[in-house]
Amino acid sequence: METKEKERVLELIISYEQKGKIQGRKEGRKEGAEQERRHIAKRMLMKGYDVQTIHELTRLAVEEIEGMK
Questions:
Q1: How many domains does one find in the chain?
Q2: Residue 37 and residue 32: Cα distance in Å, rounded?
Q3: What is each CA distance from 63 to 66, 67, 68, in whole angstroms?
């Protein structure tokens, strides 16, 4: 394999690696936000908030909130 080809392959590998890291961070942030919304919903239930209000504020599914009771 010629030097130019090797360089191009290396560039592609690095590019895909960087894209993978970016995607992983995005997914991690999204997962963290979901966990936080669930935590908030549980606390709201403990404080006596109704399911509909929790749904409106957290955007969690009503069924999921009801399952937390």
A1: 1
A2: 9
A3: 5, 6, 9
